[in-house]
Amino acid sequence: MTTRLPSQRHARSSAAGTAMGGGAQGNDTRHGSTDNLADHAEREREETPLLVLNESGEDAPGDAAIAQRKQKGYYAYLVGWALCGLLNNTPYVLFLAAAERLLTGKSGVVLMCDVAPSLAIKVVGGAILYSTPYSPRIATTALLASAALAAVAYAQNPTQALTGVAVASLASGLGEFTFLALAGRCFAENAGGAKAEFAAWGAGTGAAGIAGTLIWIVATQVMKLTARATMLVAMPLPLLQYVAFAHLVRPVALGGNKADADDGDDADDDDSPLSWHVRMDTARKIFVPFIGPLLLVYFAEYSINQAMYLPLGLVAHHGDEARACSMYPRLQLTYHIGVLISRSSLFFIVCPYLWPMSLLQAANFAMGMMQIIKLQSSGSFVVLATFVFAVWEGILGGGVYVNAMNALGLSLSHSRKLREFALSIVGLGDTTGILLAGLLSSWMEHWLLSSYMGAATSRSLKC
After folding, report:
1. What is the DSSP secondary structure assignment for residue 195, as one 8-state letter?
2. CA 209, CA 189: separation in Å to the nearest integer?
């Protein structure tokens, strides 16, 4: 026996099939404390035949959904989401992998330039960009990211290079803001208890960590290319993001190649934009359960990545600077393998325990500090343990990210407009955590190097 599960209107009727009118309210307990948010939004609710509730109480795709997947190129659609995530984050990761080359001992400064503009776009985006169509936003994202790689390639000094990094951050933030809102709009497909758009986007952004780091390692350490040549090789990649969106995502998500003016967040003719009061009320209610864990896990995670990886390499190799500098991008790569594992896991398993995972990441931060300052163990076993540590750190961070997005979307499954808005701003948590980590790392990495090597020696260290 199956029961229809009330769902939001699909983005376009041509993509969803024939909608069934109705106004019944679901009994899904996942709405939790956010149920009363519906009073401020969605004046109409329609029931679509995309999801059914099976006898075990779990979401499962109905016959109409399965048929629709085949008809509309469902798997190509998911590949498109994964490619957009991959290409959105690759320049961001590439700059982090190159951080010690750009400013040795000050990778926290690189991190801040790689994050602060992204935070700014997420802060103002919910207020001023919600009515801007998706297509121009994504085209702007691709152009800015490509221009940033060119700017860093031809930079004549660190200030110019950091300006290019900041432009890439702006592009990455705009892309994430836009695609998460779009995922909320298309929130209608099931993937192992999670939602397919989040699972595919998470897998793509997780793969970006490996792609960006591998580009840097292979280009500079295997092919012996200069930093400039590496950036120029990567420069065309962001432009492919718009191609993937236009040909794989947009035809299903937005009902085909319609006019750009018709595919914004608030494109529905019978819906008015959410009021300022509703937006602030939504932001307040999602802070503790969703934004808070993201902030903590990413603060601890990026503090480790940017302030501790080089000192951990020096400790593990007993002060060998060349081997420590070589270990730095490899630790970044290993970390991103962990991120890929956890961000792809949403296809198979859902873990709702956001705060416990965040607290485990804080424990990782404490363990790294203890190793550098107190234990100072070295040797082959310690080198191996450091790489395992990096994988575990990545698993926790990626796990909190995808499960927070999925849980937030499920809790607001009754209201498309609230879901779009909430998913577009929840990224403030991870971005703020990363920015705070950059502020901390900008002096902590030098302090850790000085505590191990001595102040004079640490200042002369160049990777």
Report:
1. E
2. 26
Supply 147's token pair: 């221009």
Distance CA 286, CA 303 (A): 25
Tokens of 395: 């698993």
Give Cα separations from 37 to 284, 346, 415, 425 (angstroms).
11, 26, 8, 16
CA distance 82 to 346: 13
Q: What are phi and psi of 47, to 5 degrees?
A: -100, 125
**Residue 410 and residue 357: Cα distance in Å, rounded?**
20
Q: How many residues does the chain have?
A: 463
Q: Coil, strand or helix: which one is 53?
A: strand
- Reported as a single tens digit per residue, the pLDDT across 140-167 is 999 999 999 999 889 888 888 888 889 9
CA dist 113 and 306 (Å) reads 13
Ranges of H-type helices in 194-275? 196-217, 227-234, 239-244, 250-253
pTM: predicted TM-score of the whole model, two decimal places: 0.74
Give first-to-last CA distance, the chain, whole Å.
64
Cβ proximity of 372 and 311 under 8 Å? yes
Task: Provide the 10 A C-beta neighbour count for residue 447.
Answer: 14
Q: Are 96 and 110 in contact (CB under 8 A)?
A: yes
In angstroms, rounded to a whole number, what is the distance separating the alpha carbons of residues 2 and 213?
A: 47
pLDDT band at 55 (very low <50, low <70, confident <90, very high): very low
User: 3-state DSSP call for residue 47?
Assistant: strand
DSSP state at residue 304:
I
- One-letter amino acid at 138 equals I
pLDDT above 50: residue 234: yes
For residue range 420-448, list pLDDT tens digits in order. 888 888 888 998 998 899 889 888 988 88
The per-residue b/e assignment along 69-102, b for 16 or more CB within 10 angstroms, e otherwise, is: beeeebeebbbbbbbbbbbbbbbbbbbbbbbbbb
* Residue tagged 């400790």 (tokens): 315
Tokens 């081997």: give the residue. 323
Rg (CA), the chain: 22
